[in-house]
Each structure stands twice: as C-alpha cells, then as structure tokens.
Design a protein that fits this description.
Blueprint lengths: L1 E6 L3 H13 L4 E8 L3 E3 L4 E3 L2 H8 L4 E3 L7 H6 L9 E4 L8 H4 L5 E6 L11 H7 L4 E8 L9 E8 L6 H24 L29 H9 L5 H6 L1 H9 L7 H11 L6 E4 L13 E10 L2 E9 L5 E2 H13 L3
Parallel strand pairs: 1-2, 1-6, 2-5, 6-7
Antiparallel strand pairs: 3-4, 7-8, 8-9, 10-11, 11-12, 12-13
Helix pairs in contact: 1-6, 5-10, 7-10
C-alpha cells in the first residue's frame, strides 16, 4: 500500500485524478490533499474554495488550502496539519512550482501528471495550445519532479487522438481521466523498480504551452470579417495578430485560412478568455459600453467562419440568423 499526498487546484479536472487515486484502494492510500486557498469569485466576489477542497472534505480527507509552500512539510507534521510522510507526492493541475524542500519530502518520489506528450507543450496550458496549433494527437506524461516546471524524467506516457470538434473542456476531461488511470498504473511499478526513468531531450526545439492571457482572445474587426468572408490568410495578418504569429512558429499554417485559426480559438478559449472583437466598422449604433463583441460559438463552412452565437457587451446573446444579420448590418453599413 503506497501512501500519497495529492496536490491539485484545477477546477473539477484535478478532482478526476484524485478520484482515481481513491478508487485504487488495494494499492494506494491518499493521506492528505494540498490545494490553493479560497478566492473571490462571481459578481459579489464571495470567497469560493477549490473544487478539490470541497471534494476532499466530503471524503473526509485531511486537506490544506495553502497560499504558499514556504513552511516545511516536517513543520506541518509537528503542528498536526499533516499526519505522516507519504511514499509519493502526486501533482495534477496544481499550477505552482513546488519548492525543493517539498520535493525531498516523500519516501520514494514526487510525481507530476502532465497533460501533453513531453517534451512538447510543457507549461500550464497544454490542451489549449494543442487545439490552437491543430494537433491531431496529445496525451499524458508521468514525470518525476524537479525544481523546474515540467523538466523531470519521464516514467510513462500515453497518447490519445484529438477529435475534430474537440474543445478545451472535453479535451481536459479526457486527459485528466487518462492521467488518473496512468498515475495509478505507474506508482506501483515505479516503486518496484520496473521503470527506468528517461531524461527529456530539452536540447531539441520543442513546442511550449505558454500562459494564455485575456488579450490572446482579441481579433481585430476587419480580420474577423475577412474570416467570415472566407478569405485566405495573409502574411500581414500574422504580423498584426501575435497569437497567429506564434502558432505559425510552432506549426506551418501557410495553407490555413483565417477561419480555421479563429474556429480553433473558439474551441480552445471557451470559456476563458473567449474570442472577442471591437466594433470598429464605423457603422451601427454601438456605444462605448457595447463596442466589445464576444464570439461565443462558430463553425466552418467551406473555409468560411459562420458565427452561431455572439454577444454585444451589455446586450443579450444573439444566435443563428440574428447573429448573422447583426454581422451583415455592421459590415454593409445598414442598421
């Protein structure tokens, strides 16, 4: 029976891995959970604890919502916050760098469940970047942890296919389910010395899943309209939209249309940061508060972007013909 201290904070996705560990009762015992503390959420900015904390409390697990890991684990044991020294630390969607004094804590090893096929797409947003770049495959990598993000030795790796209309949410759900299963399989055989860790080839060029920002979701109005019309991608567009330029550095997109790139953004950036533009057509009656337009849903038709749902800031969402008519009116100058 291997004792595990679990780290995770990423919405319900981290809970999926924790559930898999708890279900492996014959080989794994979860002795504690560490997550991030409650944060203000919603319009009223009320404190909301992570879904990991809520789940752990329901399962009557020892849970520590820590702002940082400055305190040593030994000190927390002395204070009665942690019960015992684990065999493994297992991290899945924690989002923070684990300091060295914690990496030395487990008897066997600290383990990270990473949601890409390392060494490609290290970083906090691997599923988003896999979708943005049009990857057809991704997967999960179990690594030992080092003092640098996602650079530990590879223990096991498993690949999955990315479906044509995969979204950020559906892809993360698949990856975290797979990650939980792979972690449960890996811990016992690693402990028994049946896995030879493999160093990552960090010298070769690899794709990086950098942090996504709100501004990454912005598409200039005229470029959005070009995608709606189905016009091809131009070199000038790559220079104006830095996200497209970055994607082009990862994957050759010279044969891609603008519509394809924006449709991928819609799937990768839902629900956050979303895809949005500003009404800079000079037409319509957009006020300052209503000038921001969020593109909520869309699909491809013959390399054209068809907008299924949009929302002008301060107004109700528009769908179907209403959305198409709104775009047409602004484009043609009628109101």
């Amino acid at each position: 029976m291997f004792k595990v201290l679990f780290f995770g904070s990423f919405q319900n996705y981290s809970v999926q891995v924790l559930e898999k560990l708890l279900a492996a009762k014959n080989t794994i015992k979860v002795v504690g959970v560490i997550t991030t503390p409650p944060r203000p959420a919603g319009r009223e900015q009320l404190l909301k604890q992570t879904e990991v904390q809520t789940f752990a409390q329901k399962k009557q697990l020892a849970v520590l919502p820590l702002e940082n890991l400055d305190r040593s684990p030994g000190e927390l044991i002395n204070l009665g916050k942690l019960e015992e020294v684990p065999d493994f630390i297992v991290v899945a969607g924690y989002g923070k760098l684990i300091p060295e004094h914690w990496l030395r804590f487990p008897k066997i090893a600290p383990i990270n469940v990473h949601f890409s096929l390392l060494p490609d797409y290290p970083g906090r947003f691997p599923a988003e970047w896999a979708l943005l770049t049009g990857e057809t495959k991704t997967g999960v990598t179990i690594i030992t942890m080092s003092t640098k993000f996602d650079q530990g030795e590879i223990l096991t790796q498993r690949e999955i296919t990315i479906a044509d209309l995969e979204t950020r949410e559906t892809l993360y759900k698949k990856l975290y389910d797979l990650g939980g299963d792979l972690a449960v399989e890996t811990l016992p055989i690693f402990a028994e010395g049946k896995i030879k860790p493999i160093s990552q080839d960090l010298e070769r060029p690899h794709k990086y899943a950098r942090q996504i920002t709100r501004d990454d979701g912005f598409i200039p109005w005229d470029i959005l309209i070009t995608a709606v019309k189905g016009d091809p991608l131009q070199g000038e567009t790559l220079q104006r939209v830095s996200l497209f330029k970055e994607i082009g550095q990862i994957k050759d997109i010279t044969d891609q249309s603008l519509a394809i790139l924006i449709e991928r953004m819609l799937r990768a950036f839902d629900p956050w940061p979303g895809v949005w533009t500003l009404n800079q057509s000079g037409r319509g009656k957009a006020t300052k508060e209503e000038s921001r337009i969020k593109i909520l849903k869309g699909h491809l038709e013959d390399r054209r972007l068809v907008i299924d749902w949009l929302q002008v800031e301060g107004r109700s969402p528009l769908s179907g013909k209403d959305a198409l008519n709104f775009i047409a009116k602004l484009t043609q100058g009628s109101d």
